[in-house]
Design brief:
Distance between the termini of chain B: 46 Å
CATH architecture of chain A: Orthogonal Bundle
Radius of gyration of chain B: 23 Å
Strand content of chain A: under 5%
GO biological process, one term (chain A): transition metal ion transport
InterPro entries (chain A): CbiM/NikMN (IPR002751)
Membrane topology (chain A): Multi-pass membrane protein
Protein name (chain A): Cobalamin biosynthesis protein CbiM
Structural class of chain A: mainly alpha
Number of domains of chain B: 2
Strand order of the largest sheet of chain A: 1-2
Oligomer: heterodimer
Largest interface: A-B, 81 and 87 residues
Mean pLDDT of chain A: 90
Radius of gyration of chain A: 16 Å
Transmembrane segments (chain A): 12-30, 36-56, 68-91, 97-118, 130-155, 167-189
CATH class of chain A: Mainly Alpha
Helix content of chain A: over 70%
Mean pLDDT of chain B: 85
Largest sheet of chain B: 2 strands, antiparallel
Strand order of the largest sheet of chain B: 1-2
């Protein structure tokens, strides 16, 4: 969900940029130099995942998977998703430049919250249980993203209120798809490489 | 490198040799990044139709001076998220004002239409200038230039790793996709599809983290201590001053049009 330049009020753009800069700085502090290669490869992984289109009825949606990013990367999801959005804006023309902060906040804040909330549970539980929690996490992250987008729009002007409301309802199927996919991805990852969800938590200490 | 990002054919410049095509390509990357930022801030501040059209014109002129393929770049400029398009279409109906027409009891207003056009022009002008000025760089050069502009070192390193591995992981994704197809996988709206693509993403994650472990080991063998020396040095030359002057003049002109119009 990329908001474009010129749509939001200046206060929202500046506030978003400040908050996003804070989040990126905090995320980098949780990222020791030793973990940067892993974070970079995972960031590339989520960038690639965002190019995957999944059929949904007659249409298709592209994946965001910010919940999964938060579960795997924790606080490091903030800089990792920021880098992804920056590259998308510069090379693909998705989103914009002045709204980069707001867009980062939209995607990364729910991701980090989900990671902090559910990450420890998922690292502990058996794969089927972890998959259920991850499904919930995937749904929460996208719901959070649509809500933050809606808040950014409504703070910019009342005329966006109907659009923000419709965007939320239009994203209900996306929320379901992301929840299913996140659950399945975590189920497989927990079976194949159980320590995957602990790797960034150790480094964060 | 940057094959997925730039969509360009692989060429020798991937070995690090500088590529020079078009007038803009030789301008200092730092100047181009700063110019894109300045242009974006000025354009977002504009609100009259004339000034915004002038801004889009300026961005189109930059496109003409750059080595970017015009058709593909313009298509990328116009593409926006579905929900933004939807919002723009709704705007005439949600902004109160002088009526143009009424559809199913909803009234479209001139003010709303003007606002939608304003947002559309701003978004396209900024994104086009950004792609032309910054997106035409080798992704690695972008990393070096951001480092030279005092971006946090860890963030630049993170970006360089991301850039380096997007291509590798995209190829891995396509290999996995081909092997699914060979086994008769056909995506549809069903549980089987979502589970399979979920497993695909999970497998990519596992492989990515294992790859990153091998990378770290290999880098440690070669004396990696957490820092990558970024060797590229930029020299500010006369053509950069000319470019900076021209961009400042363009932004000043846009400001003047805004005030006068």
């Amino acid at each position: 969900m990329h908001i474009v330049d010129g749509a939001l009020a200046n206060e929202v753009v500046i506030g978003g940029a400040v908050l996003a800069a804070g989040g990126v700085a905090l995320g980098l502090r949780h990222l020791p130099l030793e973990k940067i290669p892993a974070a970079g490869v995972l960031s590339a992984c989520f960038f690639t995942a965002s190019l995957i289109h999944v059929p949904i009825g007659p249409s298709s949606v592209h994946l965001i998977l910010n919940g999964l990013a938060g579960l795997v990367l924790g606080w490091a999801a903030f800089p990792a998703l920021f880098v992804g959005l920056l590259l998308q804006a510069v090379f693909f023309g998705f989103g914009g430049l002045t709204v980069l902060g707001v867009n980062t906040l939209n995607i990364a804040l729910p991701a980090v919250l989900v990671g902090l909330l559910l990450g420890p549970v998922i690292a502990r539980s058996r794969p089927p249980v972890a998959a259920l929690w991850a499904g919930l996490g995937g749904a929460l992250a996208i719901t959070g993203t649509t809500l933050v987008v809606a808040v950014a729009l409504v703070l910019s002007g009342d005329e966006f209120l109907p659009a923000a409301r419709l965007v939320f309802f239009a994203h209900l199927p996306v929320i379901a798809v992301e929840a299913l996919l996140t659950g399945a991805a975590v189920y497989l990852a927990r079976q194949v490489k159980p320590e995957l969800f602990a790797s960034f938590r150790k480094g964060a200490a | 490198m940057g094959h997925t990002l730039s969509g360009a054919a692989r060429r020798l410049s991937e070995t690090g040799a500088p590529q020079a095509e078009g007038a803009l390509a030789r301008v200092d990357p730092r100047a181009r990044i700063l110019a894109a930022l300045l242009f974006a801030v000025v354009t977002v501040a504009l609100s009259t139709l004339t000034a915004l059209l002038a801004a889009l014109g300026g961005a189109l002129a930059l496109l003409a001076l750059s080595p970017m393929p015009a058709r593909r770049t313009l298509r990328r400029m116009i593409l926006m998220d579905g929900f933004i398009l939807f919002m723009l279409v709704l705007l005439p109906f949600t902004v109160p004002g002088e009526a143009i027409f009424t559809l199913w009891g909803l009234t479209a207003s001139w003010q709303g239409l003007a606002q939608a056009i304003e947002i559309g022009l701003t978004a396209n002008a900024v994104v086009l200038a950004l792609m032309v000025l910054v997106g035409s760089m080798e992704p690695v050069t972008l990393g070096h230039a951001l480092h030279a502009l005092r971006c946090p070192e860890r963030l630049v390193h993170l970006m360089m790793f991301t850039i380096r591995y997007i291509e590798v992981l995209h190829e891995e994704y396509q290999r996995l996709r081909v092997s699914m197809k060979v086994r008769g996988f056909r995506p549809g709206t069903n549980w089987h599809t979502y589970r399979s693509i979920g497993y695909l993403v999970g497998m990519m994650l596992v492989r990515a983290i294992e790859r990153s472990e091998r990378i770290l080991d290999a880098m440690k063998c070669r004396g990696f201590d957490g820092r990558i020396p970024l060797l590229e040095r930029f020299a500010y030359a006369r053509r950069d001053a000319v470019f900076a002057g021209a961009m400042l003049a363009l932004c000043a002109l846009l400001g003047a049009v805004e005030v006068l119009a």
